[in-house]
Design brief:
Transmembrane protein; globular; 209 residues; Protein Transport Mog1p, Chain A; disordered N terminus; 3-stranded antiparallel β-sheet; alpha+beta; single chain; 25% helix
Length: 209
């Protein structure tokens, strides 16, 4: 049986009751987990955060995984082994909550830089993102900047859908990119469309080493 990169319902149940005092993505490892955690937390904590969204942007330099990004709050981190096409791989995640949204950077560490393995991991993440909001995994070409200058080709996704036991409306924006032995996933899941300047702050700051 195929397991989505973003299996969320279990984490929603685990973290939603603790939204007010603890990050909803404390042990999130991939976007489907982010989506499900966000869904449960957004439902449980909507009243608490609706009137006071805050974006305390700070630059995070992740030297272990080779990227830098601006996040709107102090991030939580986690790592776990996942299975992609029968191959065990490590996936790490940094997530930060702000207002009614979760911002996340996921990194899959590949066993090598074989093009077929790179594509398999990319497809796995892309399909998992879409499945959790009942959308088709459509994407468009984009460019992801390098910290040293230049760009590498990537994919961008943006769609809305319903998720969670109450089928609440959610929006998701994401960027996916392969760089050497890493596949990256930058994403934002929210219960409403975010201001363009907040999305731009996040995505434009995401740069690879």
């Amino acid at each position: 049986m195929h397991r989505s990169a973003f299996s969320l319902s279990q984490l929603s149940r685990r973290f939603a009751p603790r939204f007010a005092s603890r990050s909803i993505a404390h042990t999130v490892l991939d976007l489907s987990r982010v989506v499900r955690v966000a869904v449960g937390a957004l439902i449980a904590g909507a009243v608490l955060i609706a009137c006071s969204p805050t974006y305390d942007w700070r630059t995070i330099m992740n030297n272990d995984n080779g990227y830098t990004v601006d996040l709107p709050a102090k991030p939580d981190t986690d790592e776990r082994t996942i299975d992609i096409g029968g191959t065990q791989m490590k996936m790490s995640m940094q997530t930060a909550e702000a207002g009614h949204a979760v911002f996340a950077i996921g990194t899959v560490m590949l066993p090598d830089d074989d093009p077929q393995m790179q594509q398999a991991a990319l497809d796995f993440l892309r399909t998992g993102l879409a499945r959790n909001l009942g959308a088709t995994p459509e994407s468009n070409a984009t460019q992801i900047p390098l910290a040293a200058g230049g760009q590498v080709p990537g994919l961008e996704m943006a769609f809305s859908g319903k998720a969670g036991p109450q089928q609440e409306a959610r929006t998701l924006h994401a960027r996916l990119v392969v760089h050497g032995r890493h596949v990256y996933q930058a994403a934002v899941i929210a219960d409403r469309e975010l201001p363009v300047e907040q999305l731009d702050q996040f995505f434009q700051s995401f740069k690879l080493y």
